[in-house]
Amino acid sequence: MALSGEALAVEIMKCVRCGQCRAVCPVFLESGAETDVARGRIFLVKLLMEGRLDGKDLDGALSRCLGCKSCFQECPSGVKGDQIVLAGRAEMVLRHGLGWMKRGLYRGVLGRPKVFGAMVGLGSLAQRVALARVPRDSGIRLRLPGNRVPRTIPWLPRRPLRPKGTATYSPGGELDQETRSALTQGARMGPGAEGKTAPRRRVLYFTGCLTNYLYPRIGRAVIDVLNRNGVEVIVPADQTCCGLPARGAGDLETADRLMAANLEAMSRYEADAIIVSCATCLTSWKEDYPAAGGTLGERARDMAAKVYDFSQYLTEVLEFQPPEGALAMRVTYHDPCHHFKGMQIKKEPRKLLKAVPGLEFKEMAEAERCCGFAGSFSVWNYDLAVKINDRKIKNAAATGAEAVVTGCPGCVMHLADGLNRNQVPARALHLAEVLEMAYQKEK
Amino acid sequence: MKVDGALALEFQKQLGAGKVLTKETEMACYAFDSSFLGQLTEYRPDAVVKPDSAGEVAAVMRLASRHRIPVTPRGAGTAQTGGAVPVRGGIVLDLSSLNRIIEVDTDNLQVLVEPGIVHADLNAHLARFGFFFPPDPGSSRMCTLGGMVSNNSSGMRAVKYGTTRQYVLGLEVVLPGGEIIWTGVKGSKALKTVSGYDLTQLMVGSEGTLGIITKIRLKILPMPEKRGLVLAAFDTLEKSGEAVISVFRNRLFPSAIEILDKTAIRAAMLYKPDIVLPQAEAALLFEVDGSPADVVYQAEKIAGVCGPLAGHVEWTDDPVKFGKLWQARQVVGAAAARVKPGVTRVYDGEDICVPITKVPQALRRIQEIGARHGLTIVTYGHIGDGNLHSAVMANLRDPAEVEHARQATDDIHRLALELGGTTTGEHGVGLTRAKYMEEEHGLALEVMRGIKKAFDPDNILNPGKMALETVAMGETASDKTAQDKTAVERE
Ligand SMILES: Cc1cc2nc3c(=O)[nH]c(=O)nc-3n(C[C@H](O)[C@H](O)[C@H](O)COP(=O)(O)OP(=O)(O)OC[C@H]3O[C@@H](n4cnc5c(N)ncnc54)[C@H](O)[C@@H]3O)c2cc1C
Ligand code: SF4
Ligand code: SF4
Questions:
Q1: What pTM was estimated for this model as a whole?
Q2: Fold (CATH) for B101-222
Q3: Nearest-ligand number for the alpha carbon of B145
């Protein structure tokens, strides 16, 4: 449950206004305005809750929060600035309806998988017609409505990752071309498949929207790497958006509906664990769902104990089998905010990268600094997101890495955009993709 | 006068639209700093102006003085006194984007910076050259040099390195009418001067009431090669006081001496259980710095001096262990607010300074004040110069408790005066401590008021602070402040 009532008032009171969040809030560091830092936003939510501000102007201050938790991590008094902002947004939705933050995106698209699927399908078609000559690798440059700067988004795939029904992928050594295309089309359906070796474990894969619709290649890599480590992967049907974008916009009703659907979808199968490869989805499963009230909350708390980030599962639960193929490449790693600041995941991805033969790992300055994506933030505040991102790209470029690796498809997208915009000759990759590349080098 | 729409437009014409803020939400966010007063009352400006150069500051001041609009300079708004809060409305001049390091001249031991530079950013830059600007406030990561000069801030190492004052060589200042002057001999890079009245030192600690600082020429020092730390625990407060005095008597000169009383020891351990401190009435931390050999010599000697008085002594010059021990001191400020759920720390009565010999007595009396008002108070501070930070904890949503907090903080201030000290050692006067100015200064306050008049005859610069306004017969400065407050509350 989002903060509300008494708990919210106490959380707000805890802010002593020392201003220490000025040292870390990425939005403030670019704009320099007190409305753009936790202590300002917290005060505005206080005014809103006490009925001293009607909120005409408030959308700017609240929508410009990345939810990156940098303020919480830095705050000597332990104030949850990001959560207070969420509570403020929820209040705004109650009072002014969803219109204040772009209604369509959350209720109309992310909340309805079919609509999202259809939009991606259409977009894909449109791209193919209009941008036929743009090379696939470079991504495409697209003007989103209201944004003045061209924005690179990935080449929209023809089909989402998830097939119509539940799919099961069993370990069977290296995936041949046929299996690979079957994977994308969801041909190997139904539980249990004809794997060559008996699976050591069985997991459920919660894909998240970005992986499903925009980056199926990341999802395939996750499945492949797990398979190669002897794990059977089930991708349950009927899973949907994790709900964080809706929660972030203050649309708690939609967020709760999506949560219920996901809890239902993921509890239909027996498995050792639920694997997530998106930092945002991980936050939903680990923090937001368990905070729900009633029986739903109880169920969520039970399930949350079984939810692992991809990198955590490989390093902490499995005996990770490092790839034998050498990958001669220099890489650096960007910590997604929801990993590092939310979940303290930092060592795991580095351990995995360092296990890849031939790979040279070079730490960048400020690796844990936000990349500026924050879901819808970068859509509606693109100019500011670009500034925050430029700093990230500069730090990444300084390492001379050929690939900027990260653990979240959202960061992959924003990093790719930044590398492209700054003409840095490096790729943005998900950790799973790098591991998969190394396995593929195995003879 | 108020900044109305037409006037706001005129400011925008001079500076560009992006640098003049007027939205309701924006005004609300500039209505406070970290002071207790700011938590209780909102002082909203009519406009916030964010200049980029001294020229722009001068343009703002010319316009403001023509229309007699109050102007309150602001750095990061971290002060605990309401100093950067616009008590009379008007303009808040946010100087935090004026933040360039203009020149680093290590051979001449100085830097030239703009006032918006953040303390930690300056020292990170200087560290590359092996130099540093010694005053070290706890707010290093957010406070600006302009705020530090205006409040004459300092920190733990003031024992050896003094306060900001010692390092300010010259200033570029925009006067209330918009004229630009240099103090400390224009264009000079000399490290000393006795030419003329020392306007530089007059500006230091003037809390934005005399002029707007737009450039700062600062003295810097080479970084010491090594640091060491001695931790000693005592079973009475008196013994900790005696230990400090014996250290000085033995001709030892630590860079910092910090004290944690038993409330602070408990708070630190509650907050970070891996911090292990001895159970004691008081713990002292001595920091020594210098050459590696010197550090060992001093640390051993301090440990030896404390030995007979303390129940427990240890020392280290290992950087890792050093960091762990110092952590205990560094977290108490934050830990204080976490000792009791449902309360928050208030910044008031947080900065008294008493003679070193009176520190044990002050610590005990502060606990009595807390007990009398039913409030938790955690105290720690710079015993090396008698500067104590009391963290009074209160539930701000309970009016009775707020009233107790007001009284307790007043009691703490009065205690400082009774013990032959002062209400503020490093945080400043602002609004919070204006009511003690007459008592602390007597006739000298009249001289200060005369100086204020000479600089700012129309009283447009940071009005309502430091009891500088000449008040009508029979009315005291604190009455005037009280009037200000009720006026705003009524609005
Ligand atoms: C957690 C915490 C710890 C702290 N620790 C310490 C400490 O250890 N030691 C210490 O001394 N203080 C400490 N402080 C107090 C405070 O941080 C200092 O006084 C600091 O120097 C204020 O800087 P600022 O940029 O925030 O100034 P502000 O609060 O913005 O302003 C302070 C005063 O300076 C004036 N001013 C600011 N800039 C200018 C300018 N360019 N020209 C003219 N006037 C100007 C303002 O009008 C105001 O009166 C602490 C505060 C906090 C919240
Ligand atoms: S959110 Fe935390 S760091 Fe920021 S002003 Fe409030 S107490 Fe200080
Ligand atoms: S969550 Fe991130 S963007 Fe939002 S206020 Fe905190 S630091 Fe700033």
A1: 0.79
A2: 3.30.465
A3: 1
- Could you give the 3-state DSSP secondary structure of residue B482? helix
B41 in A contact zone (CB under 8 Å): no
CB contact under 8 A, B118 and A23: yes
**Global ipTM:** 0.93
Q: Which of A6, A11, A12, A20 to mutate to test the interface with B (most CBs of B within 10 A)?
A: A20
Out of 3.20.20.70, 3.40.50.300, 2.30.30.240, 3.30.70.2740, the CATH code matching B340-418 is 3.30.70.2740
Q: Are B39 and A39 in contact (CB under 8 A)?
A: no
Cα–Cα distance for residue pair A120/B269, rounded to 1 Å? 54
Q: Which domain holds residue A45?
A: 5-96
Tokens of B113: 């910076």
B22 in contact with A, Cβ within 8 Å: no
Q: How far is CA B199 from CA A1, A2, A11, B173, B454, in A?
A: 58, 54, 45, 10, 13
What does each of the 443 residues of chain A score in pLDDT, given as a tens digit? 568 889 999 999 999 999 999 998 877 887 899 998 999 999 999 999 998 987 767 767 787 787 778 899 889 888 999 999 988 888 887 777 666 555 444 554 555 555 555 444 444 444 443 333 333 332 233 323 333 334 455 555 667 788 878 889 988 744 444 444 444 443 333 333 444 445 678 999 999 888 887 888 999 999 999 999 999 999 998 888 888 877 877 778 888 888 999 999 999 898 999 999 999 899 999 999 999 888 889 999 999 999 999 999 999 999 898 998 889 999 999 999 887 677 788 999 999 999 999 999 999 999 988 887 765 565 566 677 788 888 999 999 999 999 999 999 989 988 988 888 888 889 999 999 999 999 988 86
In chain A, what is the greatest distance between 2 CA atoms, to the nearest angstrom?
Answer: 68
> CB under 6 Å to ligand 2: residues?
A 15-21, 38-39, 42, 71, 75, 77, 79, 81
